């Protein structure tokens, strides 16, 4: 495993692997149990129908531990059961781009549907960025910046 890890790490500067190891089904089960505690960090490019200025979005930076009610999104309803899930947006940081665009950096509870948090999914996610800004909003880009979970266990050297 160490050799494979070194081969991967030496082959590219775009990806790095650490603690490469075989894991048991039991260890995977423990990881899945930690889903609720896991957080994810995203960057989203957002469009607004009405013009915005920096001061229109600045208040988002002060919102902490925002509780959401999310019904199963329409886009996944064919493969997931209809349910109401409570999720948390831990932090947000806005970055003004122009009159109709801004970037939003979010740290969220795992399992949060980010696209739906931005556009509201026809009222199925409350609150949402559109309702907070009192504007129609949509998501143009979404990048996962990090998945924060301490897994797999670190290897002893």
TrEMBL record:
GO terms for molecular function: RNA binding; tRNA pseudouridine(55) synthase activity. The keyword Manganese does not apply. One of its GO terms (biological process) is tRNA pseudouridine synthesis. Keywords: Isomerase, tRNA processing. It is an enzyme of class 5 (isomerase). Pfam families: Pus10_C. InterPro entries: PsdUridine_synth_cat_dom_sf, Pus10-like, Pus10-like_C. The keyword Isomerase applies. It comes from the Eukaryota. Residues 2-148 form the Pus10-like C-terminal domain. Its EC number is 5.4.99.25. Belongs to the pseudouridine synthase Pus10 family. This is tRNA pseudouridine(55) synthase. It comes from Pavo cristatus (Indian peafowl). The lineage of its organism: Eukaryota, Metazoa, Chordata, Craniata, Vertebrata.
């Amino acid at each position: 495993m160490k050799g494979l890890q070194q081969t991967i790490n030496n082959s590219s500067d775009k990806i790095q692997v650490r603690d490469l190891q075989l894991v048991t089904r039991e260890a995977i089960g423990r990881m899945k149990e930690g889903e609720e505690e896991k957080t994810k960090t995203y960057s989203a490019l957002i469009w607004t129908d009405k013009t915005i200025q920096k001061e229109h979005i600045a208040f988002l930076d002060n919102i902490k531990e925002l509780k959401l009610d999310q019904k199963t999104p329409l886009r996944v309803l064919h493969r997931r059961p209809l349910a109401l899930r409570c999720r948390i947006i831990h932090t947000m940081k806005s970055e003004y781009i122009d009159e109709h665009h801004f970037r939003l950096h979010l740290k969220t509870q795992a399992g949060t549907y980010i696209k739906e948090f931005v556009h509201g999914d026809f009222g199925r996610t409350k609150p949402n960025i559109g309702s907070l800004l009192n504007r129609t909003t949509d998501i143009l880009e979404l990048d996962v910046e990090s998945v924060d979970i301490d897994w797999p266990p670190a290897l002893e050297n």
